[in-house]
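// run 5 | inverse folding | seed 20
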């Protein structure tokens, strides 16, 4: 993965961590606990300011989440 040109808008640091979260959408996906929304989080290492960016979610990952309760 290539490095981001991240500069924290809160403290000015350029050091960051990347993380990922998945969330359920509305309707049927929420009822079945299918986490079909995926976001990449960029977290400032100094002040912990966090920005979220929507990422594509794979259908295979959604099916796996359905069966294992992820």
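// decoded
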């Amino acid at each position: 993965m290539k490095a981001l040109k991240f500069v924290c808008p809160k403290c000015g640091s350029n050091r960051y961590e990347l993380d990922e979260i998945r969330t359920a959408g509305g309707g049927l996906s929420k009822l079945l606990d299918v986490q079909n929304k995926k976001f990449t989080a960029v977290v400032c290492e100094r002040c912990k300011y966090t920005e979220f960016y929507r990422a594509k979610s794979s259908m295979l990952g959604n099916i796996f989440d359905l069966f294992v309760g992820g």
